[in-house]
Amino acid sequence: xxxxVSEYGQFIxxxxxxxxxxxxxxVVQEIPFRDLTQVTIASRGVSISTDAIEGCIEFGVPVNFxxxxxxxxxxxxxxxxxxxxxxxxxxLKAYDDERGVYLAKAFVAGKIGxxxxxxKYFAKHRKEKxxxxxxxxxxxxxxxxxxxxxxxxxxxxxxxxxxxMNLEGRAAAIYWQDIGEIAVGEEFNGRKHRGAQDPFNACxxxxxxxxxxxxxxxxxxxxxxxxxxxxxxDRPGKPSLVLDMVEEFRPxxxxxxxxxxxxxxxxxxxxxxxxMTRESRREVADAVLTRLDGKERxxxxxxxxxxxxxxxxxxxxxxxxxxxxxSAFVSSW
Length: 333
What we know:
- By secondary structure, this protein is an alpha/beta fold.
- The protein folds into two domains: about 1-60, CATH 3.100.10.20; about 85-320, CRISPR-associated endonuclease Cas1, C-terminal domain (Four Helix Bundle (Hemerythrin (Met), subunit A)).
- The protein is built from ten helices and ten strands.
- It has helices spanning about 50-60, 85-95, 100-125, 130-150, 155-185, 200-220, 240-245, 250-265, 280-295, 305-320, and strands at about 1-5, 10-15, 20-25, 25-30, 40, 45-50, 65, 70-75, 295-300, 300-305.
- It has a four-stranded mixed β-sheet.
- Helix 4 (about 130-150) packs antiparallel against helix 5 (about 155-185).
- The radius of gyration is 20 Å and the shape is globular.
């Protein structure tokens, strides 16, 4: 279970082997530590006891902190991870050899493939509408761009990055025009990142913050270094591997539930500063967390997307150690 705390003034404590959430002196939720996978605090004015923190760490439950606009700003996790020295050494070496090239290409191919499949997913529910042929044609165009990723060659990731980013950008231009129209129609005015105040982009950015925490935690548990990526360039304070791995999960884990939510006519309420209200943040969080618990076919079985994220991080680590190949996760449609 992913506990999401978003009420101002709530207190998170510990009672025996349970995490207890209370408000104004009254208990509102009790969850056994063994049933928790993550705790996310997404409001100011929330307190957590050191006993609760210790309990979470003992049971391997990361505690995440989100700002009002969904930006992760802190994470509490045990310093005793499943990391191996070999994994991180190989990760750093891979930046300058063919392994970095392979992973960068896999991340981009996975993202573009999932974008094409999400367009097809929404198209199949609109077969009786005029937009259906256009969506399917655009999905095929996005798939053509994905297929071009294999042809990109280079000795290091620095050689291939410009070409991969070009393909990614061209796919995104087609994808966002389709997805934006499905979600909010004529209200869509382009994809915006920081400081977005329109409903669609505000919801997406908040949802991505939740996804970042999922991926970051999986990377740490796999023994990888979050700040040593391949596709995204290194910058101080920039978790480039987190940003790399997030790419293949954005369409399936966040875009799909947000588009579904907005296409039904729901719109978030915004504060004067452009941020969403607490109630709207909760609505978006519920949609994304429900999707993260949703099942996709993976290795011949139905697995939750949260499980797949953890498995994919471990497979990146195993690939870097030379133990197995790595393939990006691509959702069904």
